[in-house]
Protein backbone atom coordinates (compact mmCIF):
# COMPACT_ATOMS: atom_id res chain seq x y z
CA UNK A 1 0.00 0.00 0.00
CA UNK A 2 2.89 2.31 0.89
CA UNK A 3 4.55 1.58 -2.46
CA UNK A 4 1.36 2.52 -4.28
CA UNK A 5 1.16 5.79 -2.34
CA UNK A 6 4.80 6.61 -3.18
CA UNK A 7 4.27 5.88 -6.87
CA UNK A 8 1.09 7.98 -6.88
CA UNK A 9 2.91 10.89 -5.20
CA UNK A 10 5.85 10.62 -7.60
CA UNK A 11 3.55 10.54 -10.63
CA UNK A 12 1.70 13.61 -9.40
CA UNK A 13 4.98 15.36 -8.56
CA UNK A 14 6.38 14.81 -12.05
CA UNK A 15 3.25 16.06 -13.80
CA UNK A 16 4.59 19.54 -13.25
CA UNK A 17 6.49 20.48 -16.47
CA UNK A 18 9.30 22.23 -14.57
CA UNK A 19 10.14 19.11 -12.57
CA UNK A 20 9.40 16.62 -15.36
CA UNK A 21 11.68 18.31 -17.89
CA UNK A 22 14.46 18.58 -15.30
CA UNK A 23 14.25 14.90 -14.34
CA UNK A 24 14.29 13.69 -17.95
CA UNK A 25 17.23 15.95 -18.83
CA UNK A 26 19.21 14.60 -15.87
CA UNK A 27 18.29 11.03 -16.87
CA UNK A 28 19.43 11.76 -20.44
CA UNK A 29 22.81 12.96 -19.19
CA UNK A 30 23.22 9.93 -16.92
CA UNK A 31 22.35 7.57 -19.80
CA UNK A 32 24.89 9.37 -22.01
CA UNK A 33 27.58 8.80 -19.35
CA UNK A 34 26.66 5.11 -18.99
CA UNK A 35 26.71 4.45 -22.75
CA UNK A 36 29.98 6.35 -23.06
CA UNK A 37 31.59 4.22 -20.36
CA UNK A 38 30.51 0.91 -21.92
CA UNK A 39 31.28 2.08 -25.47
CA UNK A 40 34.93 2.73 -24.67
CA UNK A 41 35.20 -0.31 -22.41
CA UNK A 42 34.01 -2.60 -25.25
CA UNK A 43 36.23 -0.79 -27.76
CA UNK A 44 39.27 -1.30 -25.50
CA UNK A 45 38.58 -5.04 -25.38
CA UNK A 46 37.84 -5.60 -29.09
CA UNK A 47 40.23 -3.19 -30.81
CA UNK A 48 43.92 -2.36 -30.60
CA UNK A 49 45.08 0.67 -28.55
CA UNK A 50 46.11 2.43 -31.77
CA UNK A 51 42.65 1.98 -33.31
CA UNK A 52 40.95 3.18 -30.14
CA UNK A 53 43.32 6.15 -29.89
CA UNK A 54 42.63 7.34 -33.45
CA UNK A 55 38.87 6.86 -33.05
CA UNK A 56 38.96 8.82 -29.79
CA UNK A 57 40.75 11.67 -31.58
CA UNK A 58 38.17 11.69 -34.40
CA UNK A 59 35.17 11.74 -32.08
CA UNK A 60 36.78 14.31 -29.77
CA UNK A 61 37.43 16.54 -32.77
CA UNK A 62 33.75 16.39 -33.76
CA UNK A 63 32.63 17.15 -30.21
CA UNK A 64 34.96 20.15 -30.13
CA UNK A 65 33.52 21.40 -33.44
CA UNK A 66 29.99 20.94 -32.09
CA UNK A 67 30.79 23.17 -29.14
CA UNK A 68 31.62 26.00 -31.56
CA UNK A 69 28.90 25.31 -34.12
CA UNK A 70 25.79 25.78 -31.96
CA UNK A 71 25.84 29.59 -32.31
CA UNK A 72 23.74 29.82 -29.14
CA UNK A 73 20.75 28.66 -31.18
CA UNK A 74 19.89 25.86 -28.73
CA UNK A 75 19.24 28.40 -25.96
CA UNK A 76 17.57 30.71 -28.49
CA UNK A 77 15.10 27.95 -29.34
CA UNK A 78 14.25 27.40 -25.67
CA UNK A 79 13.60 31.12 -25.26
CA UNK A 80 11.70 31.87 -28.49
CA UNK A 81 10.13 28.64 -29.79
CA UNK A 82 7.32 28.46 -27.18
CA UNK A 83 5.85 31.78 -28.38
CA UNK A 84 6.75 31.45 -32.08
CA UNK A 85 3.85 31.64 -34.54
CA UNK A 86 5.72 29.61 -37.16
CA UNK A 87 7.34 26.85 -35.11
CA UNK A 88 8.25 24.61 -38.13
CA UNK A 89 9.90 27.58 -39.84
CA UNK A 90 11.94 28.45 -36.75
CA UNK A 91 13.04 24.83 -36.27
CA UNK A 92 14.15 24.45 -39.91
CA UNK A 93 15.93 27.82 -39.88
CA UNK A 94 17.94 26.82 -36.81
CA UNK A 95 18.69 23.36 -38.19
CA UNK A 96 19.92 24.81 -41.47
CA UNK A 97 22.17 27.41 -39.85
CA UNK A 98 23.74 25.04 -37.34
CA UNK A 99 24.00 22.09 -39.74
CA UNK A 100 25.72 24.09 -42.49
CA UNK A 101 28.00 25.94 -40.08
CA UNK A 102 29.08 22.71 -38.37
CA UNK A 103 29.94 21.10 -41.72
CA UNK A 104 31.85 24.22 -42.76
CA UNK A 105 33.86 24.00 -39.52
CA UNK A 106 34.49 20.30 -40.22
CA UNK A 107 35.82 21.15 -43.69
CA UNK A 108 38.08 23.89 -42.31
CA UNK A 109 39.30 21.49 -39.63
CA UNK A 110 40.25 18.93 -42.27
CA UNK A 111 42.00 21.52 -44.44
CA UNK A 112 44.06 22.69 -41.46
CA UNK A 113 45.11 19.27 -40.18
CA UNK A 114 48.78 19.98 -41.00
CA UNK A 115 48.69 22.79 -38.46
CA UNK A 116 46.69 21.40 -35.50
CA UNK A 117 46.54 17.61 -35.83
CA UNK A 118 48.99 15.95 -38.26
CA UNK A 119 48.15 12.55 -36.77
CA UNK A 120 44.69 12.79 -38.38
CA UNK A 121 45.92 13.55 -41.91
CA UNK A 122 44.51 10.20 -43.02
CA UNK A 123 41.08 11.90 -43.03
CA UNK A 124 42.16 13.84 -46.12
CA UNK A 125 43.76 10.83 -47.75
CA UNK A 126 40.77 8.46 -47.51
CA UNK A 127 37.45 9.45 -49.08
CA UNK A 128 35.44 7.37 -46.60
CA UNK A 129 36.87 9.23 -43.59
CA UNK A 130 36.60 12.61 -45.35
CA UNK A 131 32.90 12.22 -46.17
CA UNK A 132 31.91 10.55 -42.91
CA UNK A 133 33.69 13.16 -40.79
CA UNK A 134 31.72 15.98 -42.43
CA UNK A 135 28.46 13.99 -42.45
CA UNK A 136 28.67 12.92 -38.79
CA UNK A 137 29.54 16.47 -37.71
CA UNK A 138 26.45 17.86 -39.45
CA UNK A 139 24.14 15.06 -38.28
CA UNK A 140 25.26 15.21 -34.67
CA UNK A 141 24.94 19.01 -34.52
CA UNK A 142 21.32 18.86 -35.71
CA UNK A 143 20.50 15.88 -33.46
CA UNK A 144 21.84 17.68 -30.39
CA UNK A 145 19.92 20.81 -31.35
CA UNK A 146 16.73 18.76 -31.26
CA UNK A 147 17.68 17.11 -27.99
CA UNK A 148 18.89 20.20 -26.14
CA UNK A 149 16.78 22.87 -27.83
CA UNK A 150 13.50 21.83 -29.44
CA UNK A 151 12.43 19.13 -26.99
CA UNK A 152 13.27 21.32 -24.01
CA UNK A 153 11.37 24.26 -25.52
CA UNK A 154 8.32 22.10 -26.23
CA UNK A 155 8.36 20.52 -22.74
CA UNK A 156 8.96 17.02 -24.10
CA UNK A 157 12.38 16.10 -22.70
CA UNK A 158 11.26 12.48 -22.49
CA UNK A 159 11.98 12.53 -26.23
CA UNK A 160 15.55 13.58 -25.42
CA UNK A 161 15.86 10.45 -23.32
CA UNK A 162 14.44 8.34 -26.17
CA UNK A 163 17.02 9.86 -28.53
CA UNK A 164 19.85 8.99 -26.15
CA UNK A 165 18.54 5.44 -25.79
CA UNK A 166 18.52 5.02 -29.58
CA UNK A 167 22.06 6.44 -29.77
CA UNK A 168 23.01 3.48 -27.55
CA UNK A 169 22.81 1.44 -30.77
CA UNK A 170 26.53 2.25 -31.06
CA UNK A 171 27.28 -0.54 -28.56
CA UNK A 172 25.82 -3.16 -30.92
CA UNK A 173 27.42 -1.64 -34.02
CA UNK A 174 30.78 -1.67 -32.27
CA UNK A 175 30.61 -5.47 -32.18
CA UNK A 176 29.08 -5.99 -35.63
CA UNK A 177 31.58 -3.78 -37.48
CA UNK A 178 34.76 -4.77 -35.65
CA UNK A 179 36.43 -6.03 -38.85
CA UNK A 180 36.91 -2.41 -39.99
CA UNK A 181 39.17 -1.23 -37.15
CA UNK A 182 39.24 2.51 -36.46
CA UNK A 183 36.56 3.13 -39.08
CA UNK A 184 34.26 0.71 -37.21
CA UNK A 185 34.55 2.58 -33.91
CA UNK A 186 34.06 5.94 -35.62
CA UNK A 187 31.17 4.71 -37.78
CA UNK A 188 29.43 3.01 -34.84
CA UNK A 189 29.33 6.31 -33.00
CA UNK A 190 28.24 8.35 -36.04
CA UNK A 191 25.65 5.92 -37.42
CA UNK A 192 24.00 5.66 -34.00
CA UNK A 193 23.54 9.44 -34.02
CA UNK A 194 22.08 9.20 -37.54
CA UNK A 195 19.50 6.75 -36.20
CA UNK A 196 18.80 9.06 -33.25
CA UNK A 197 18.30 12.01 -35.62
CA UNK A 198 15.79 10.09 -37.77
CA UNK A 199 13.84 9.12 -34.65
CA UNK A 200 13.97 12.71 -33.38
CA UNK A 201 12.57 14.08 -36.65
CA UNK A 202 9.68 11.61 -36.46
CA UNK A 203 9.02 12.65 -32.87
CA UNK A 204 9.09 16.31 -33.91
CA UNK A 205 6.48 15.62 -36.59
CA UNK A 206 4.38 13.99 -33.89
CA UNK A 207 4.62 17.21 -31.84
CA UNK A 208 4.14 19.50 -34.84
CA UNK A 209 2.07 17.61 -37.48
CA UNK A 210 2.74 20.35 -40.09
CA UNK A 211 6.50 20.10 -39.63
CA UNK A 212 8.66 18.78 -42.48
CA UNK A 213 12.48 18.73 -42.30
CA UNK A 214 13.06 21.03 -45.28
CA UNK A 215 16.28 23.14 -45.16
CA UNK A 216 15.70 26.86 -45.40
CA UNK A 217 16.43 30.15 -43.67
CA UNK A 218 13.78 32.74 -42.84
CA UNK A 219 15.43 36.14 -42.47
CA UNK A 220 12.82 37.43 -40.02
CA UNK A 221 13.46 34.54 -37.64
CA UNK A 222 17.22 35.04 -37.88
CA UNK A 223 16.87 38.75 -37.10
CA UNK A 224 14.63 38.06 -34.09
CA UNK A 225 16.99 35.49 -32.57
CA UNK A 226 20.41 36.68 -33.76
CA UNK A 227 21.36 39.07 -30.95
CA UNK A 228 20.09 36.75 -28.22
CA UNK A 229 21.66 33.61 -29.73
CA UNK A 230 25.06 35.13 -30.50
CA UNK A 231 25.26 36.66 -27.03
CA UNK A 232 24.62 33.24 -25.54
CA UNK A 233 27.14 31.75 -27.98
CA UNK A 234 29.84 33.98 -26.51
CA UNK A 235 28.69 33.20 -22.96
CA UNK A 236 28.58 29.43 -23.54
CA UNK A 237 32.05 29.53 -25.14
CA UNK A 238 33.37 31.06 -21.91
CA UNK A 239 31.44 28.48 -19.85
CA UNK A 240 33.10 25.59 -21.68
CA UNK A 241 36.57 27.19 -21.83
CA UNK A 242 37.88 25.73 -18.52
CA UNK A 243 37.01 22.21 -19.66
CA UNK A 244 39.14 22.70 -22.78
CA UNK A 245 42.10 24.59 -21.29
CA UNK A 246 42.54 23.05 -17.82
CA UNK A 247 43.74 19.67 -19.20
CA UNK A 248 46.40 21.53 -21.20
CA UNK A 249 47.49 23.45 -18.10
CA UNK A 250 47.72 20.22 -16.11
CA UNK A 251 49.90 18.51 -18.72
CA UNK A 252 52.27 21.49 -18.91
CA UNK A 253 52.47 22.37 -15.20
CA UNK A 254 52.07 18.93 -13.58
CA UNK A 255 52.71 15.42 -14.87
CA UNK A 256 50.75 13.86 -17.79
CA UNK A 257 49.07 11.23 -15.61
CA UNK A 258 47.52 14.02 -13.53
CA UNK A 259 45.40 14.78 -16.59
CA UNK A 260 43.76 11.37 -16.26
CA UNK A 261 42.98 11.93 -12.56
CA UNK A 262 41.46 15.33 -13.39
CA UNK A 263 39.40 13.95 -16.29
CA UNK A 264 37.75 11.24 -14.18
CA UNK A 265 36.93 13.65 -11.32
CA UNK A 266 35.62 16.26 -13.78
CA UNK A 267 33.45 13.63 -15.53
CA UNK A 268 31.94 12.34 -12.28
CA UNK A 269 31.14 15.79 -10.95
CA UNK A 270 29.72 16.73 -14.37
CA UNK A 271 26.69 14.57 -13.54
CA UNK A 272 26.25 16.57 -10.34
CA UNK A 273 26.55 19.89 -12.20
CA UNK A 274 23.95 18.64 -14.68
CA UNK A 275 21.31 18.81 -11.93
CA UNK A 276 21.56 22.61 -11.94
CA UNK A 277 21.89 22.97 -15.71
CA UNK A 278 18.93 20.65 -16.42
CA UNK A 279 16.67 22.39 -13.91
CA UNK A 280 17.57 25.78 -15.35
CA UNK A 281 16.96 24.73 -18.96
CA UNK A 282 13.51 23.72 -17.76
CA UNK A 283 13.14 27.05 -15.90
CA UNK A 284 14.02 28.95 -19.09
CA UNK A 285 11.41 27.01 -21.06
CA UNK A 286 8.70 27.48 -18.43
CA UNK A 287 9.44 31.20 -18.10
CA UNK A 288 9.12 31.53 -21.88
CA UNK A 289 5.59 30.13 -21.61
CA UNK A 290 4.66 32.01 -18.42
CA UNK A 291 7.00 35.00 -17.85
CA UNK A 292 4.67 36.38 -15.19
CA UNK A 293 5.48 33.38 -12.96
CA UNK A 294 9.25 33.85 -13.13
CA UNK A 295 9.76 34.63 -9.44
CA UNK A 296 7.61 31.70 -8.29
CA UNK A 297 9.36 29.30 -10.69
CA UNK A 298 12.80 30.53 -9.58
CA UNK A 299 12.05 29.57 -5.97
CA UNK A 300 10.63 26.20 -7.07
CA UNK A 301 13.73 25.57 -9.20
CA UNK A 302 16.11 26.33 -6.32
CA UNK A 303 14.14 24.01 -4.04
CA UNK A 304 14.16 21.24 -6.66
CA UNK A 305 17.91 21.61 -7.33
CA UNK A 306 18.90 21.35 -3.67
CA UNK A 307 16.55 18.44 -3.09
CA UNK A 308 18.73 16.47 -5.54
CA UNK A 309 22.04 18.28 -5.09
CA UNK A 310 22.34 17.84 -1.31
CA UNK A 311 22.27 14.00 -1.26
CA UNK A 312 24.52 13.93 -4.36
CA UNK A 313 27.20 16.04 -2.62
CA UNK A 314 26.92 13.92 0.53
CA UNK A 315 27.27 10.77 -1.57
CA UNK A 316 30.51 12.08 -3.07
CA UNK A 317 31.75 13.25 0.33
CA UNK A 318 31.26 9.85 2.01
CA UNK A 319 31.65 7.42 -0.92
CA UNK A 320 33.72 9.32 -3.49
CA UNK A 321 36.94 7.72 -2.28
CA UNK A 322 35.49 4.24 -2.71
CA UNK A 323 33.94 5.07 -6.10
CA UNK A 324 37.31 6.20 -7.45
CA UNK A 325 39.18 3.29 -5.90
CA UNK A 326 36.83 0.49 -7.01
CA UNK A 327 35.94 1.99 -10.36
CA UNK A 328 39.30 3.23 -11.58
CA UNK A 329 42.07 2.12 -9.23
CA UNK A 330 43.79 3.14 -6.02
CA UNK A 331 45.95 5.77 -7.73
CA UNK A 332 42.83 7.62 -8.90
CA UNK A 333 41.53 7.69 -5.34
CA UNK A 334 44.83 8.93 -3.92
CA UNK A 335 45.27 11.70 -6.49
CA UNK A 336 41.70 12.63 -7.38
CA UNK A 337 39.52 12.39 -4.26
CA UNK A 338 40.35 15.81 -2.75
CA UNK A 339 39.79 17.44 -6.14
CA UNK A 340 36.49 15.56 -6.53
CA UNK A 341 35.29 16.69 -3.10
CA UNK A 342 36.13 20.38 -3.75
CA UNK A 343 34.48 20.26 -7.20
CA UNK A 344 31.37 18.67 -5.66
CA UNK A 345 31.24 21.43 -3.03
CA UNK A 346 31.35 24.01 -5.83
CA UNK A 347 27.98 22.67 -6.94
CA UNK A 348 26.35 24.90 -4.30
CA UNK A 349 27.49 28.32 -5.62
CA UNK A 350 27.24 26.99 -9.19
CA UNK A 351 23.52 26.30 -8.59
CA UNK A 352 22.82 29.89 -7.51
CA UNK A 353 24.92 31.31 -10.36
CA UNK A 354 23.10 29.20 -12.94
CA UNK A 355 19.69 30.34 -11.65
CA UNK A 356 20.84 33.99 -11.87
CA UNK A 357 22.02 33.45 -15.46
CA UNK A 358 18.69 31.87 -16.42
CA UNK A 359 16.78 34.83 -14.97
CA UNK A 360 18.91 37.21 -17.05
CA UNK A 361 18.25 35.11 -20.15
CA UNK A 362 14.51 35.27 -19.52
CA UNK A 363 14.82 39.05 -19.21
CA UNK A 364 16.97 39.12 -22.39
CA UNK A 365 19.83 40.81 -20.51
CA UNK A 366 22.87 39.08 -21.99
CA UNK A 367 25.73 41.29 -20.81
CA UNK A 368 25.57 39.98 -17.20
CA UNK A 369 25.52 36.41 -18.56
CA UNK A 370 28.68 37.02 -20.59
CA UNK A 371 30.40 38.84 -17.71
CA UNK A 372 29.66 36.05 -15.21
CA UNK A 373 30.90 33.23 -17.44
CA UNK A 374 33.92 35.25 -18.58
CA UNK A 375 34.92 36.01 -14.98
CA UNK A 376 34.51 32.37 -13.89
CA UNK A 377 36.50 31.06 -16.85
CA UNK A 378 39.36 33.57 -16.72
CA UNK A 379 39.69 33.60 -12.93
CA UNK A 380 39.60 29.79 -12.78
CA UNK A 381 42.34 29.49 -15.38
CA UNK A 382 44.44 32.30 -13.87
CA UNK A 383 44.20 31.14 -10.24
CA UNK A 384 44.74 27.51 -11.31
CA UNK A 385 47.95 28.54 -13.07
CA UNK A 386 49.13 30.30 -9.89
CA UNK A 387 48.20 27.49 -7.47
CA UNK A 388 48.80 24.22 -9.32
CA UNK A 389 52.60 24.26 -9.10
CA UNK A 390 52.33 24.26 -5.26
CA UNK A 391 48.97 22.63 -4.56
CA UNK A 392 48.67 20.25 -7.52
CA UNK A 393 45.14 19.32 -8.61
CA UNK A 394 43.76 20.68 -5.34
CA UNK A 395 44.82 24.15 -6.51
CA UNK A 396 42.65 23.74 -9.57
CA UNK A 397 39.68 22.77 -7.41
CA UNK A 398 40.23 25.77 -5.14
CA UNK A 399 40.34 28.08 -8.19
CA UNK A 400 37.03 26.69 -9.53
CA UNK A 401 35.29 26.87 -6.14
CA UNK A 402 36.63 30.36 -5.41
CA UNK A 403 35.56 31.72 -8.81
CA UNK A 404 31.99 30.49 -8.42
CA UNK A 405 31.91 31.59 -4.78
CA UNK A 406 32.94 35.17 -5.61
CA UNK A 407 30.20 35.41 -8.25
CA UNK A 408 27.59 34.07 -5.83
CA UNK A 409 28.71 36.60 -3.21
CA UNK A 410 28.35 39.52 -5.62
CA UNK A 411 24.95 38.27 -6.82
CA UNK A 412 23.80 37.95 -3.21
CA UNK A 413 24.99 41.43 -2.27
CA UNK A 414 23.34 42.93 -5.36
CA UNK A 415 20.07 41.15 -4.54
CA UNK A 416 20.14 42.42 -0.94
CA UNK A 417 20.84 45.95 -2.14
CA UNK A 418 17.89 45.87 -4.57
CA UNK A 419 15.65 44.48 -1.84
CA UNK A 420 16.73 47.22 0.59
CA UNK A 421 16.08 49.94 -2.01
CA UNK A 422 12.57 48.62 -2.60
CA UNK A 423 11.62 49.03 1.08
Overall description:
The chain has 18 helices and no strands. It has helices at residues 2-13, 17-46, 49-69, 73-80, 87-111, 113-116, 122-125, 127-153, 158-167, 170-176, 182-207, 219-253, 256-289, 294-328, 330-345, 347-362, 366-391, 393-422. By secondary structure, the protein is mainly alpha-helical. 87% of the residues lie in helices and 0% in strands. The chain is globular, with a radius of gyration of 22 Å. It has two domains: 17-222, no CATH class; 232-418, no CATH class.
Number of strands: 0
Residue stretches low in confidence (pLDDT < 50, at least 5 long) are: none
- Summed over residues and divided by their number, the pLDDT gives a mean of 85
Question: Structural class of the secondary elements?
Answer: mainly alpha
Taking Cα atoms only, what radius of gyration do you get, to the nearest Å? 22 Å
Q: Major sheet, described briefly? A: none
Q: Hey, roughly how much beta strand do the residues contain?
A: under 5%
Choose one word for the global shape.
globular
Helix content: over 70%
Amino acid sequence: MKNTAVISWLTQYLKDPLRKNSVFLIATHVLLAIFGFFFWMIAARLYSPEEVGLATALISAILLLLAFSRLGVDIGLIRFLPSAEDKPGMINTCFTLVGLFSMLLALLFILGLNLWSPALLFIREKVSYFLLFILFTGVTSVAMLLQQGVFVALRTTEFSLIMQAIAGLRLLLLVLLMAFGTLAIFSSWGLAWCAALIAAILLTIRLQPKYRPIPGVQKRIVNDMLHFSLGNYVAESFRELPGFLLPLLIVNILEPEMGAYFYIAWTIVGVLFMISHAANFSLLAESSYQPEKLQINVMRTIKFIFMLLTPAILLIFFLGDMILSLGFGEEYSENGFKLLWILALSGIPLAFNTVYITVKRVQKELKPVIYVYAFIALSTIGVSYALMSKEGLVGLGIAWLLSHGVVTLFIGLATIRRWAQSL
